[in-house]
Structures are given as structure tokens and as C-alpha cells.
Amino acid sequence: MSARGARSRSGRTGFWRSNSLSLAFGAAFLVVLAAQAVAGRAEFNEQLAVEGLQQVGLGDYLMSSDFAVDVTENWQSEFLQFFLYIFGTVHLVQRGSPESKPPDRTGTESERDQRMGDHARHDSPRWAGTKDWRQGLFSRSLGLTMAALFLLSWLAQSVSGVSAYNDQRLRQLQDPLGWGSYLGSADFWNRSLQNWQSELLAVAAMAILSVYLRQRGSPESKPVGASHAATGVEG
After folding, report:
1. What percent of the chain has pLDDT over 90?
2. What crossing angle do the helices spanning 141-171 and 186-212 adopt, rounded to 10°?
3. Long-range contact pairs involving 45-51 (C-beta distance under 8 Å, separation at least 24)
4. How confident is the model at residue 10 (pLDDT cuts 50, 70, 90)?
5. Which of 43, 59, 65, 70 is the most exposed place for a label (fewest CB within 10 A)?
6. Is-contact 196 80, C-beta < 8 A?
7. Which residue, among 190, 202, 164, has the nearest Cα to 67 in the 3D structure?
8. Contact 221/211 with Cβ under 8 angstroms?
9. Cα 100–chain centre separation
């Protein structure tokens, strides 16, 4: 094999290996989403059969408000989890958890610690070295993006939710609700809150269980031999 061919293969291998985490989870997401569509259509058609209505094909179900609301209500809860965790861990700590900063580093930390302004390095992002609104925006960009994704997903859930809810009401010969009225309905808040509580429980469980339990080789865990009291130490 030529040297050029070897370099080409090495480059391809390097890309897949260096991006394997996002690629693997992205592919798994698509597989599970497709499986959800198949299972969701089957359940939806069962409901239609009970009501004596015509069943729908997979393509029609994918374009339906029922599928959209089921997807978006889970998305918004996940983005809420990350938004709250990203901002919460700025000031809140859990002694002994690798998910937490050490107690003496609470807050936004100094520019030296964060490699900002005059303390930016040659390989730092360009906006980190500025001293104006760009630095302020970039220094909070992850949390703000998660917040925006949460709000957009929640909005999408409300729009698709009111459509799905009204479809059900019309099948029962009831008057539809407007979007504003749906925002105050039990259906909307039940969909939201049942996801929020599960995400908050998962975060709390991860924070406390990672104090005493280990997963060898995972950056979400402390080293196997690390003290239970060690905080902010990754494996």
C-alpha cells in the first residue's frame, strides 16, 4: 500500500474514532426514533380501531400531531435537565461527586482559572480573549443554548400537543381548545411535569451515586481507587 493510501485510511479511522461518542449516540437516536415511530403508530391505530375509525399508515403517523407531541415532550425535558445542571453546578456542589466542582471553587471563578481575557492561550477560542459582550456571551453560550433548545422544544410540544388534544376531543364530539387555554390544561402540565420529575431524579441519583460507586475508564466516574470524599475528580 502506498504512503498516500496509508495516510488516507489513517485519516478516516481517526475521524470515526475521535468522534465515536457523538456518532454512536446519534445513530442510536435515529434507530430508537424509528422504533418509536413504529410502536407509536401501532398504539395509535389500536386507539382508532377501538373508536371505529380508519387506521393510518406510517407516513401519515409521522406527520401527525400525536407523534410530534410524544417526541417533543421528551426532548424538552432532556434539554431542561442539561440547562439546570449546567447552571446549577456553577454554585451548587456535592461533596465527593465527580459531577461537582470542589467546594472551594464555587461561582464563576477567576479569569485566570477560566483562561479568559488576558489569560487566554494561543489555542483558546477567539471570543474567550475579548473583553466585551462577546466574552460574556461565549462564557455562557452552553447554558444559554440549552435553555433556548428547552424553550423551543417546549413551544413545539405545546403546539403539537394542542393539535393532538383537539383531535381527541373532536373524535369524542367535544369542542376544541385554543392554544392559550391548552397551556393551562391538565394535559399540557401532566405531559411536562411527568418528564421533569424523572429528569431531576436522574440528575440527583447520578450526583450522589457517583460519590460511592465507580465505573472504570469512564470520565463520569472517579478513578476506582479514589477516596469517596474526592470531589471533581474524573476517571
Report:
1. 66
2. 140
3. 51/171
4. very low
5. 59
6. yes
7. 164
8. no
9. 19
Q: What letter represents residue 41's amino acid? A: R
Domain ranges of the chain: 1-63, 65-235
Outline where 172-226 has alpha helix (H): 179-183, 186-212
Give yes or no for a contact between 161 and 199, defined as CB atoms under 8 angstroms apart.
no
Rounded Cα–Cα distance for residues 233 and 210 (Å): 11
Cα gap 34→155, rounded to integer Å: 23
pLDDT tens, position by position, 136-148: 999 999 999 999 9
Please enumerate in sequence order all residues whose Cβ is within 8 A of that of 61, keeping only pairs 6 or more positions apart, or say none.
37, 40, 41, 44, 67
State how far the Cα of 199 lies from the Cα of 214, in Å rounded to an integer. Answer: 21
CA 230 centroid distance within chain: 27
CB neighbour list of residue 76: distance below 8 Å, 6 or more residues apart: 150, 153, 154, 156, 157, 192, 195
- What distances in angstroms separate CA 210 from CA 100, 102, 197, one per listed residue? 10, 14, 20
Per-residue pLDDT of 22-39, as tens digits, reads: 999 999 999 999 999 999
